[in-house]
Amino acid sequence: xxxxxxxxxxxxxxxxxxxxxxxxxxxxxxxxxxxxxxxxxxxxxxxxxxxxxxxxxxxxxxxxxxxxxxxxxxxxxxxxxxxxxxxxxxxxxxxxxxxxxxxxxxxxxxxxxxxxxxxxxxxxxxxxxxxxxxxxxxxxxxxxxxxxxxxxxxxxxxxxxxxxxxxxxxxxxxxxxxxxxxxxxxxxxxxxxxxxxxxxxxxxxxxxxxxxxxxxxxxxxxxxxxxxxxxxxxxxxxxxx
Length: 241
Prior knowledge:
Layout: E1 2-15, E2 19-26, E3 30-36, E4 56-62, E5 69-79, H1 88-104, H2 112-127, H3 135-147, E6 161-163, E7 168-170, E8 179-180, H4 182-192, H5 206-223, H6 233-240
Parallel strand pairs: 3-5
Antiparallel strand pairs: 1-2, 1-4, 2-3, 4-5, 6-7, 6-8
Helix pairs in contact: 1-3, 1-6, 2-3, 3-5
């Protein structure tokens, strides 16, 4: 059946002499794999650059829900990036976010609200010129709301600790070591109540940014099955600094 959908490219792998297998997150079908025949051929009218990680596409597909790999009939840019490919900070942020999404999003079913959040966030990253150093932190915290483990409660004098295992702001230090202390819990709560347009209101030292990212990724490990070994945070932090 021929279907149209928007998609975000996750990963491309060479297949046979001139084709590629591409993992994408789509608006209509969730996460899916597609084969693109002949795209690495010299005669191909389509360019392999369309399949770089993070690219936003409009697809026409031969979709069959009984198959694991689908074919692409047509594809074109849904949004042409103007700055991400040429800005080292933005391109590093994009690579990092795609790496996280590959590990966090497994469902092969439509989630249009989640897709719109991802699509709009990448467009915003491409267009914005300010406050990039905390963009990924807000993106990840907002992402938890869409995939089912938004932190419960809020920071207060009565609940000054955030329990990473339970996903709650709590009154007492947990019996285990996986929790945020007072200051970091307060930062997490501040991000919860911040929009991308208000990122200028959050000021972090490089140390606090690195620690908060470390604990956000640990939070994902507790609540997303088989989520581990994100490789790019240290490189990203060096580039941001």
